[in-house]
Here is the input.
Amino acid sequence: MGITDSVADAALQTLIQSRAHVQENRRLLSETRYRIARSRRHLTPGFALTGGSDDERMRSIVRARLRTGDLWPLNGRSFWAGHGHGKACVVCGSPIGGAEVEYEAQGLGGPAVAHLTCFMIWHRESEATTGREAR
Here is the structure.
């Protein structure tokens, strides 16, 4: 093994470690954003994302889709969140614009994206379905 092979191996190991660190940082950032939003809702009810008749309608839709298997129960682990990319929300079907927050959740069929409000309803109904309380 020459000096160039050892340099290449070291560079490859650094790249692998960097990717792992980026993935972990994204997970932590998503978890932090979720906890901040949740804390705001608990401390100041005015920040709540729920409250109208549309919300109750959306909750019943999510419950029905969880029962039929169209949506899967979220497992409480962190999810990726960022600016929307125009993809359709898995919950309501509307596109998620660049000015909106998009949550990505992994399912059996691959990743699915949802609006922040839709994701929060989906998360809450998943906890109710599985009998877990929010952490």
Notes: The helical segments are 3-43, 53-68, 116-130. The chain has three helices and three strands. The chain has a mean pLDDT of 80. The longest strand covers residues 101-107.
